[in-house]
Predict the structure.
Amino acid sequence: MYFVAKIKMETFLCVYHDDEDSLFLRPEPPVPATSVDWNGEFWVRIKPGTGEIVGIEIENFESVFIKKYPAMALIWKQVKPSCKKKCPNKPEGSDWDAFMRIILEVLSLPLLSL
């Protein structure tokens, strides 16, 4: 299945669930969407009718994903404190920009704006 991906990452929050080892990138407020498995590595949330990506979920983020893509490990340490489950924030600054660029490169998704 092929999608023309459109992403507006400036609206995304980063939420990490330690107990589930899952990373969620989603807009605030959340948008109704359909989840699509992306090659067994992560889930992409697609807004029906527009094709806009309105969320990404990566399960086993630290235990598998970070190990598979070690370039992310250092920047993840900088961004992780802003991605707590109980009080998610929209991280800002060069660390967040770098993290999102690496995520999008790894996921092979185009970036419309950051």
Q: What stands out?
A: The two ends are 26 Å apart (CA to CA). Residues 14 and 26 are 7 Å apart (CA to CA). The helical segments are 61-68, 71-79, 94-107.
